[in-house]
Amino acid sequence: MEISRVKAIFEQEFCSFLFDQYSYQFQLTGIFDNIIDEEVISSFLSMYDFPPKQKLFYDEFSFFFKSYAYQYEKNRLNYKSFYEC
After folding, report:
1. Cβ atoms within 10 A of the Cβ of 62, count?
2. Can you tell me the distance from the alpha carbon of 40 to that of 36, in angstroms, rounded to the nearest whole number?
3. Do 1 and 35 form a contact (C-beta atoms < 8 A)?
4. pLDDT (tens digit, 9 = 90+) per residue, 37-81?
C-alpha cells in the first residue's frame, strides 16, 4: 500500500502522532507494503489504544500490527470458507 494512503488512514483514525513518529520505519521495513485491504490498518488502530504520551517502541508496534494482521487474515479466510460450503 502506498505510504500516502497509510498516512491518510492514520489521520482518519486520529493516530497521526504514530505515523509521524514511525513514518521512516514504516518505509524502511515495508510493514504495510503487502497490505491490500486498508480495513486491516483501520480496524487495528481502532482496536488498540496508543496514547500519545505513552512510550512505545517501533518493535512493539510492529509486533502488535503483524499479530493483528495475521489474525485478521485468518478470520477472513475462515469466514469466507465457512460460508462458501
Report:
1. 15
2. 9
3. yes
4. 999 999 999 999 999 889 999 999 999 999 999 999 888 776 555
